[in-house]
Amino acid sequence: MIENDYLLAWAIYACAALGLLLVxxxxxxxxxxxxREVLRVAAAVLLFTxxxxxxxxxLLAPAIAIGALDLGFQMGDSLxxxxxxxxxxxxxxLVLYLIFAAVRWPIERWLRERAAEKAEAEPRARLEPQA
Length: 131
Prior knowledge:
The protein has helices at 3-27, 33-48, 63-73, 78-127; strands at residues 50-54, 59-62. The protein is mainly alpha-helical. It has one domain (3-100).
């Protein structure tokens, strides 16, 4: 496989994975927000995690595909490398999501309190006589 074929294969896979991620976002939109976001992060990790296939040539492939092929055909030791990569990237993505959620939570609470105060003040403003 020449370099152009390798890059073309990765481009096709990236487009297909992005399409699958968009479908997954559409399928999970009815769920509770905190569950939906974690499932979307998990799907992104599964679809976009690369793993090393050939250490001598530095070739990468999707970890989920390598894991499935090694498990299905019971050949090679790439399954453990793929699982290690998936778990490492999954942990990194989960920690980043938890940091994002921890920063977002007080901001949203402040915005809700501000909207409640504004809604509470609005009826009083209409009842008061204007001079």
